[in-house]
């Protein structure tokens, strides 16, 4: 069975007796565009659900951890972080060929472009504020109280992330990139001391991973928790700023060259300042390191996407190759950020 198909009979049989209200018959429609865990809308007589599963094929170690996605969303159910309600986790690969979990479908608005072209300046400002609020809420979660203190190892988050993604990058490498080698070396040499901050980290926080209310700025759910862990919060914050430095195109999904003030969009400085205010921080030193790190990690992630596309295991192979072509640009961007010119 291909990645675009789902054995709904097998899913239904496994769910039977485990989830009240999950009624047959079940039809499945695959969401398009994702490069991570294949995601499907399941329609039943009693309502809609969403199924997330690991992709087929040989996967990098620790990648596509749907069990971690399930656990973190379950833990956040009663916090200030909006998440979809999760129901069941199946770790038996024999059911549909890979682990999967079920959650509620959240009917909300999703925006691909941070320029928010279909909104007016007041609406854009409100969504930026909500995006900022939710990010601070993630980092303000009491990880001990919600049972996530063991969700990531202790120690220097950036050192272990650098080590992890360097290994992942080399495992999926398809060509030699001098800029990527130089960026890895710079990050290793300029690693900041651990400042003691240890929070929940989303790992891929950006506008298109948020669902908003149909008639207002309220965020209803933060999606795609695959890369979440316990780590250092500035990685999420710098990732937002990095994304905005990208071209303001369908592919780039950034804000480069956009007159943000005119459109009601926040500046990098305002986003960082408001975030610090919400977390009780006086400011952030050496932000260039965190920004360079985010470029590096995105380059490593996209290299994995490219490799899966070439191997035929990508959720969307054509899109995977398109995204993989950006690896050299992210490597160059990381070096520019390291020099303070991003």
Automatic annotation (TrEMBL):
Residues 28-251 form the Aminoglycoside phosphotransferase domain. Its EC number is 2.7.1.-. This is Putative aminoglycoside phosphotransferase. It comes from Roseovarius litorisediminis. It holds the Pfam family APH. Gene3D superfamilies: 3.90.1200.10, Phosphorylase Kinase, domain 1. InterPro entries: ACAD10-like, ACAD10_11_N, Aminoglycoside_PTrfase, Kinase-like_dom_sf. Keywords: Transferase. GO terms for molecular function: transferase activity.
């Amino acid at each position: 069975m291909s990645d675009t198909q789902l054995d709904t009979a097998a899913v239904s049989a496994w769910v039977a007796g485990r989830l009240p209200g999950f009624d047959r018959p079940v039809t499945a429609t695959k969401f398009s565009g994702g490069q991570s865990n294949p995601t499907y809308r399941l329609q039943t007589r009693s309502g809609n659900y969403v199924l997330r599963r690991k992709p087929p094929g040989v996967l990098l170690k620790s990648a596509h951890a749907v069990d971690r996605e399930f656990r973190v969303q379950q833990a956040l159910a009663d916090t200030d972080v909006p998440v979809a309600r999760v129901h069941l986790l199946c770790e038996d690969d024999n059911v549909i060929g890979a682990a999967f979990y079920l959650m509620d479908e959240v009917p909300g608005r999703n925006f691909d472009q941070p320029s928010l072209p279909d909104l007016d300046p007041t609406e854009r400002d409100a969504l930026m504020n909500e995006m900022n609020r939710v990010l601070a809420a993630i980092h303000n979660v009491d990880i001990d109280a919600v049972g996530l203190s063991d969700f990531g190892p202790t120690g220097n988050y950036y050192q272990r992330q650098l080590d992890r993604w360097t290994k992942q990058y080399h495992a999926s490498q398809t060509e030699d990139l001098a800029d990527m080698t130089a960026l890895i070396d710079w990050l290793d040499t300029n690693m900041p001391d651990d400042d003691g901050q240890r929070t929940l980290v989303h790992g891929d926080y950006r506008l298109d991973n948020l669902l908003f209310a149909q008639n207002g700025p309220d965020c209803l759910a933060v999606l795609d928790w695959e890369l979440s862990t316990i780590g250092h919060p500035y990685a999420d914050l710098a990732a937002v700023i990095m994304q905005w430095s990208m071209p303001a195109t369908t592919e780039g999904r950034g804000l480069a060259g956009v007159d943000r003030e005119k459109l009601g969009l926040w500046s990098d400085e305002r986003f960082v300042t408001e975030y610090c205010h919400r977390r009780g921080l006086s400011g952030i030193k050496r932000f260039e390191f965190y920004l360079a790190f985010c470029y590096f990690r995105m380059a490593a992630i996209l290299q994995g996407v490219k490799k899966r596309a070439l191997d035929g295991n990508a959720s969307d192979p054509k899109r995977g190759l398109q995204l993989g072509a950006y690896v050299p640009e992210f490597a160059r961007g990381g070096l520019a950020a390291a020099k303070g010119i991003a």
